[in-house]
Every structure is written in structure tokens, then in C-alpha cells.
Amino acid sequence: MLNKILTLTAAMLIGSCAATWAGDGSGVSSGLTLTLEDCVRLAEENNADIRGARLDIRAAELQKDEALAEYFPRVSATGFGFYSLNPLIDLGVKDIVGNNDLGNNLDNILAGLGGELGIPFRYTAMQKGYMVGIVAMQPLYAGGRIVNGNRLAQLGVRAAELTGEMSRLQTVSSIEQTWWQAASLADKKTTLERVIEILDELGESADEAVAAGLIAETDALQLSLRRSETRSQLKQVESGIRLIKMNLLNSIGVQYSVLKTLSSSEKPYLDDITLAFSEDTLLSPEHYRKDEQEVVSSLVESQLLDLQVDANRLQKKMALGEALPQVAVGVAAGYSDFLGKGRSDALAVATVSIPISDWGKTSKKLQRLQTQVDKAEEQRDYLQRQLTLMVASLWLDMESKYDAMLNSEESLGIATRLFDVARQNYAAGLIAVSDLLTAEASYRQAATEHVDAVIAYRNAIRAYQHPTAGQQMQQMQ
Length: 477
Known about the structure:
Blueprint: H1 2-5, E1 20-23, E2 29-34, H2 36-46, H3 48-68, E3 74-83, E4 89-91, H4 93-97, H5 101-117, E5 123-125, E6 128-141, H6 145-211, H7 217-252, E7 273-275, H8 292-298, H9 300-321, E8 326-337, E9 343-353, H10 359-427, H11 433-465, H12 469-476
């Protein structure tokens, strides 16, 4: 239901983007560094939805200009000309007096004198002619339809701007989610690299211990197996990072090459493109808390709902104008030549039109449109309550994600300490290799869960600060 209501008419400010290029002097780019802000600006410039929203705004502005033209006089020019094989007027005496004795006598007299005096035996005219003219009409009153039509067109522009802003916010939200997915995998990659480094050190020590006969060869083999499994997981994470990076670059319109041999300054090699993740301080939910009604009223969707009600009211007023008198004044001027003698003239006109027979039909139409107004108001009030519920749920979700992040942080600290102690005990020969690997697995899992919890809390903050009602309410439903 919300999506239908938010289709009033179709984008917002679009910023230019900046990115940091690193060159090697050969004319081919050796690297590209992108920050989150760079990605957002690039998406705002290149995203198809945002570019389409700009065109919708332009179309709405042009439609407003069309409505504005109704205030000005309507000027039209006409021209008419004709040529007939025979004169349209061909009169003789008999045609006027009739076919009787008088007509015959007069006809004979004219026939005799006509040749002597040069008087035509018959009168002919209008075998050819033309006329040109121009008319200007100025509407004085059209039942309020001109004023309300312009107001409705202005609402269309505002609706297009809000729709564009909604597209921009949804695009930014999608870009940020993809960005932090990449950040999550980057952190997991760091964790796996640290584990591999530790396992390499332990493996070297285990090989020496096996050679010295201090431990069984199975211990060294278990460490080697775990190290191989971890390297395999690292490869999977690196592949995931590349795929997410490709998805991100496609979304923001940055070209790249997956083959280094085909890379260029316009299409840098994918692995040479660096995503510069920044560490920001995450505060408690209370730091981000806002008044629910202020958040709801600031939502683009909420403003679109108000515009929908206003648009229905204006449409009802325009329908009412169809049953009201319409007054216009104007002037007309022209030149005509039908009888072989040209003549020009001008006149002023005034018109008053009252559509009496349409009053009954318009009355029913107004009643029908009033139901649309009532329906729009009901939908607005209901969806306003849904938006309030959405904001409240976002707050609760942020609190939940914050608690989960704190718990994961505590678990990570415990798992890290457990892993360090296990390493020391294993080096001292106090525990078996299986206990060491169990502690390592617990550390890796805790580190992964902590990274996911941090990303989830960061996304929850973003969703609460800049909610996109369309996506959030679809999730609620």
C-alpha cells in the first residue's frame, strides 16, 4: 500500500565525486583508493535511479510551466482561401423578378442596352477569394481551475523532488551496507592472517619438537591440517572481498579490469583498487536518540503522504470549477477579399459560459472525489502510525545490536585470553594439541562474531539516523 501511495510523480541534489588515484608515471594507473564518502558521491552521480529521478524532476518542472501558460491569452491565427470553377453568385433579372412577362421584358431591355452601355447581362461574384485573421482570448475566470491546476503542478514538482530524495537515500543505504560487508570480510581476513601466522610459528616449533622426539608426529600433522584449513578459508574470504568489491564498483559506476594485463588508467586492475576503511567511534544508543515524532515528520515518505492528500483536494476543486461560470474577453482582427474589394476590420468580444446541464454530473463527481480525499486521509493517518512503529522498532533494534556488540566484545576478550594461555601451556607441554586447536577455534569464532556484531550495530545506527521507510516497512510486513 505504501509503495502505491508514494508514486505521486516522480530527484535531488547530485554531488560530484572525488577519488584518489596513484600513478606510476607510465600513464597507467597503479591504484585507486576509495573512501565511503567517495563511493556515496560516485553513486549519487552515476546511479540509474537517481539519474532517472533528475529527469522526473525536469519533467515535473516543464509540466508546471505548461500550467503557468494558462494564465496568458490564447492567440490563434487563421487563413482561408478558395477558387471555384464557376462563380458562387450568378444572378440574372429573371432570377430576381421571376420568369414572367416583367422578367422577360426587363431581360430583353438589358440584353439590348447591355452591349451598348457596357452593363453586364448577368451579375457574377465570389469565384475566388481569401480571408486572414487573428484572435486573442484572455480567460478572466475559469472556475478556479487555472489557479488550482498550477498548484497541482507545483505539488508535482515537490513530489518529484521528494521521490528523488527517497531514491538517493535508498541508494546511499545500499552502498553503505555493501561497504560494511566488505569491511566485515576485511576484518575476518585480518583475523585469519593472524591465526595463520600463529599456526606457522607453532608448526615450526612442532616440527623441531618432533625431530627432537619431544612430541608425537600426529601433533605436528594436526597443526599442519588446521593451518591448511585456515588458508583455504582465507582464500574464500579473499574471493568474497573481490566479489563484494566488484558489486560495489558496479553500483557506483567505476570501471575496472579483473585481469592485470588488460588494466589501464580508465580501467584499473581490481586488486589495485583499495577500499579505505576508517575506524569510527561507536557510542551508546542514547547518544543517537531522537524524538520519534520529529523523525517521522522528517521522513520523505511522510511528506509524500501529505502531498497525496493535498493533491486529492486540489483535484476536487478543479472538478468543482467545471460547473462554475467561465468568463473570457478578447479581440479579433482580419482582412478579407471575396467580392474583388478587400476590407479589414476588428472587433472586441466577451464570452460567459455556464455549464448548466453538467451540474448534476459534477455533483456526483465531487462526491466521488471526496471519497478519494477521505481515503487518502485514512491512508495517511494509518501509515503515519506505521512509520511511528517503524521508528520505535529501529530504536529497539539498535539497542539490541548494541547489547550484542558488548557481549561479543566480552566474549572476544575471553577467547583471546584463552587462546594465549593455551599457546603458552602447549609450549610448556601442559596441554595436548587438540586443546590448543579448540582454543584457536573459539578465538576465531569469537572474532568473527564480534566483527559481525560491530557491523550490525553500525548498520542499525545508520538505519535509525536515516531511515528509508519503504525498505523498513516491507521488512516489518
